[in-house]
Design a protein that fits this description.
Shape of chain B: globular
Low-confidence stretches of chain A: none
CATH topology of chain A: GMP Synthetase, Chain A, domain 3
Number of domains of chain B: 1
Helix content of chain A: 25-40%
CATH class of chain A: Alpha Beta
Largest sheet of chain A: 3 strands, mixed
CATH superfamily of chain B: Glutaredoxin
CATH architecture of chain A: 2-Layer Sandwich
Oligomer: heterodimer
Mean pLDDT of chain A: 92
Strand content of chain A: 25-35%
Amino acid sequence: MPSPDSIRARLLDAFPGARVDVTDLTGTQDHFQAVVVASAFDGKSRVEQHKLVYAALGELMDGAIHALALTTRAPEAGVR
Amino acid sequence: MSDQTRTRIEELIRNHKVILFMKGTKHIPACGFSNAVVQILKKEAVPFETFNILADPDVRQGLKEYSSWPTFPQLYVAGKFVGGCDIVTELHQSGELTKELAGALK
C-alpha cells in the first residue's frame, strides 16, 4: 500500500518544483486526495492535466490506489 | 482490447449523446464517485444513459485504454470524453457542463 509521502515523492519526481498535497482520506492507504499545482499544466486542459498525473503514478493506479480525488492547476491560475 | 470490444465501446458512445460509464447503475450506484456524477447529471436535468462497468469486464478494461483514463466514472458527451468525477464536478460548478450539455443536446 502506498503512503501519502510515497505518492507525493512520485509526483514531485514527475513535476519538479510543483506544489503537491496528498491526503489519505480513509486512513487505509488506498483512498487519497491530491492537489497538484505544476507549471507542466500550463495551457493544458483539465483532462490532459489529470492524464499527466495518472501517467506519473503509473502502476499504482492499477490497484494499489482505489480512489484518487484529484485537483490540478497551473500556478498562474491561482487559488479559486 | 479486442476489435469487438472497441466496436462495442464506439457504438455505446455514438448511440448516446450523454453516457456515463460507472460502477453500478443510475438507480443503485456502487461507488460514491459514480453516484456524485449521477446526481450532477440529474441536477443538470438532461437525459442520460448509464453503463455498469462492474457487469462487463471487457468494456471496463477496454475503456481504460480507449479513454487513456485509469478510473471510473467516465463521462462522454457527444462522443467526447469529458472527464471523471473531479472534472465533472468542477465543470458543473463553473457552469461549463451546462453549456457543453446544451450544445450536445440541441
